[in-house]
UniProtKB/TrEMBL annotation:
Positions of transmembrane segments: none
Compositionally biased region (Acidic residues): 327-343
Principal subcellular localization: cytoplasm
Subcellular location: Cytoplasm; Nucleus
GO cellular component: cytosol; elongator holoenzyme complex; nucleus
Name of this protein: Elongator complex protein 5
Length: 343
């Protein structure tokens, strides 16, 4: 299953799509793509962090209904209204298949101030989506580090989930250079994920690669790497699959997926592999003398007996046996050296 099929499938196998951003790499290009496609499904977009104009490419799209909560901020809006009950009523009023998009869940949690209340609201919203047709889906956008993320990805919240985690290409370049672990198929799957997962989960390391003294900064990048994690999907025969995890590139300008080998930002990895695979030069060439043996010379060399000092001695001596070749300077006397002593 590809990244694009997880975003644009008319009949997704999971009712929950989680888009995960970080300080070093945003997943907003994926969110914009998800909003712009699947036009046959009614979309309810609830904005809490980003302006609707920055998320909806076509403001006149008839299938996108925007609900702007940017001005509904506790302590600044008087009176402030809790949006939980209002969002549930809006979703309940939709009779057909619907795609509910919330940006972002972390802002929703900060406004409410209660993790348990936010979790109950999301559970109720997930129950409404799951009760509808397969075309219905809940899209949540989170920004790591996130307090609500551990409960969203748990099986108690949803047994099936598609999780798209955005990473900067510099992370893969770092692993290939410092840890000698390029992405598959250049490295074994088990080895790569064993190195990639713990490093990618330490956000501070990735932020240092991007915003450190030798980092490239947050501007000017037109590509990103997407970690796709699918749990509880079904195959073509309808059987439920185990967890599937893979990496795929994303062209931000063209809004389309890429193979890792097609990404311009990862070209050094594949060039380095091509150099390693080149045949090593023959050391016997371009020299002033001949280092090779003719067939007759090889036959003569094979007939030469190899010297062996202990001829006739069993090749496997008894345990504890000592083999000693006396040297010409050794003074070996079999007589008792103490026979002149009156003992």
């Amino acid at each position: 299953m590809s990244l694009l099929s997880n975003l644009d499938s008319p009949h997704p196998t999971q009712h929950l799509l989680l888009l995960q951003s970080s300080i070093s790499q945003s997943s907003l290009p994926l969110l914009r793509h998800a909003i712009a496609h699947r036009n046959s499904v009614k979309k309810l977009l609830f904005c809490f962090l980003y302006s609707p104009s920055g998320l909806v490419g076509n403001p006149t799209a008839s299938n996108v209904q925007v609900h702007d909560y940017l001005d509904n901020v506790p302590g600044f809006t008087n009176p402030w209204s809790d949006p939980f009950s209002e969002i549930l009523k809006i979703v309940e009023a939709e009779p057909a298949a619907v795609e509910v998009i919330i940006d972002s869940v972390d802002t929703l949690l900060e406004d409410n101030g209660s993790t348990s209340e936010t979790y109950k609201f999301l559970r109720s919203l997930m129950a409404l989506i799951s009760a509808r047709s397969k075309s219905s889906r809940l899209i949540l956008h989170v920004c790591t580090p996130s307090k609500i993320l551990p409960v969203i990805v748990s099986t108690a919240f949803s047994s099936s989930i598609t999780q798209l985690i955005a990473h900067p290409p510099a992370l893969l370049l770092h692993l290939a250079t410092e840890y000698m672990t390029p992405p598959p198929p250049l490295s074994p799957e088990a080895k790569f994920w064993g190195v990639f997962i713990p490093i990618s989960e330490r956000g501070r390391d990735t932020e240092t690669l991007i915003f450190g003294q030798a980092g490239e900064g947050s501007g000017g990048r037109s590509e990103m790497v997407v970690e796709v994690l699918v749990r509880g999907g079904t195959d073509t025969s309808g059987r439920r699959k185990a967890v599937e995890r893979f990496l795929e590139g994303w062209d931000i300008d063209k809004s389309q997926p890429l193979k890792l080998s097609q990404m311009n930002s990862l070209t050094p990895i594949w060039q380095r592999k091509a150099v390693v695979e080149e045949a090593a030069p023959d050391p016997t060439q371009n020299v002033s003398f001949n280092l090779n043996l003719t067939p007759s010379q090889q036959e003569s060399r094979a007939r030469v007996p190899l010297p062996y000092a202990h001829e006739g001695v069993p090749s496997a001596p008894a345990p504890g046996a000592i083999l000693y070749d006396p040297d010409s300077a050794d003074d070996i006397d079999d007589d008792d050296p103490d026979e002149d002593l009156d003992i």
